[in-house]
Amino acid sequence: MIADILSRPQFATSQAEKEMILLPLLRELQEHHRAHCEPFARLLAGLGIGDASDITTMADLPALPVRLFKEHDLKSIDADDVFKVLTSSGTTGQAVSRISLDRAATQIQSRALSRTMSEVLGTERLPMLIIDSGAVLADRQSFNARGAGVAGMMSFGRRHTYALDDDQRLDLDSVRSFLDEYGDKPFLIFGFTYMVWLHLYGPAVEAGLDLSNGVLVHSGGWKQLVDQAVSPTDFRRLLHEGIGLSLVHNFYGMVEQIGTVFLEGPDDPGSLYAPLFSDVIIRDPITWEPVEVGGTGIIEVVSLLPRSYPGHALLTEDIGQLIGVDDGPTWKGKRFRVIGRVPLAEVRGCSDTYEANS
Asked: Are 322 and 293 in contact (CB under 8 A)?
């Protein structure tokens, strides 16, 4: 069924049809984890949650707080079948999530990510300009989150070129050489949001660079650079006016639901959409009921991908707003926006924490 779902356009299905597709598969997935993950089964029993026949909407799925993966070893596979263990980023002293994958889970998350990204990048690997320096991948045994993000996105490009030198300055010679060779056709640009803003935008405007054939994929918020943050609309407008970039896509994702990313629509600055194999629920923090359009609350993410661990329904520590349903200018489904972190939530040691020499 997942293979069939991945073969379809990821953002062209109405919300009602999507729920009809996902709900029976999510019921099966919950019972799979109940049978194969004893701590998850105990949790369901302690909450008095019966079998999945009681689940009539996706909002009925019991969602695990992402923090549980920092405190417990939750997996639905035997220890001998663990192929890879992913860890979330964290600042010094913070606990990190540990996500266990078998070979099948590794393959399906990679395929799902590729299928999602192909909606905005196409199926051909494009020449890739990386808004970082080669130093970010210097130690492949101990990536920080930024390095892991760069490494993950590199699989969608070819002829990889780093746009920054080791001092985080725009390497104009390298960038101009790249543009001379590839700039007259579509090419991929990847960078974390704050890196694009701080290290590409201004210097590229000053140098008069033309990036109009680029497709920018970026991620991460501003956290420690709040005073320099710009709105998604202004971010896109300034990149277009300054260096010609018009194809810009942000994404939202987390290691606890690896392979699932929520993409910014092509004509909808700031609005994120769930691919067909996933969904998002914004819950009122008082009643825990799903909010209506326009409402804000805690973001819950739902995905068919996590089968090696019970991560199919996760309550994040992020605050979001439900913008609309099936009313986007191009894509269908729920539109939502990430507003910030839940008060007192642990600050992530993530890709957009600015360290000049990181």
From this structure: yes
3-state secondary structure of 109: helix
Helices (H) and strands (E) in the chain, counts: 10, 14
pLDDT at residue 50 tops 90: no
Q: Are strands 247-253 and 334-341 parallel, antiparallel or unpaired?
A: unpaired
Helix (H) or strand (E) holding 265: strand 261-265
Q: How many CA atoms lie within 13 A of 80 on its CB side?
A: 0
Please report which confidence band the pLDDT of residue 60 belongs to, taking 50, 70 and 90 as the band edges.
very high
Domain contains 137:
yes
The tokens for 4 are: 């069939």
CA pair distance 347, 209, nearest whole angstrom: 36
More confident residue, 111 or 344: 111
CATH of the domain at 240: 3.40.50.12780
Stretch 129-147: mean pLDDT? 67
- State the Cα–Cα distance between residues 24 and 179, nearest whole angstrom: 49
Distance separating alpha carbons of residues 194 and 260, to the nearest angstrom: 22
CA 358 to chain centre: 21
Does the residue 356 lie in any domain?
no
The count of domains in the chain is 1
Q: Within a domain: residue 352?
A: no
The mean pLDDT value for 317-333 works out to 94
The 3-state DSSP class for residue 155 equals helix
| 348 located within any domain | no
DSSP element (H, E) containing 243: helix 232-243
3-state SS class at 80: helix
Q: What DSSP string describes 179-228?
A: HHHHTTS-EEEEEEHHHIIIIIIHHHHHHT---TTEEEEEE---GGGGGG
* Structural domain for 213, as ranges: 2-341
What pLDDT, in 10s, does the model give residues 232-283? Answer: 788 889 999 999 998 999 899 888 888 899 999 888 888 999 999 999 999 9
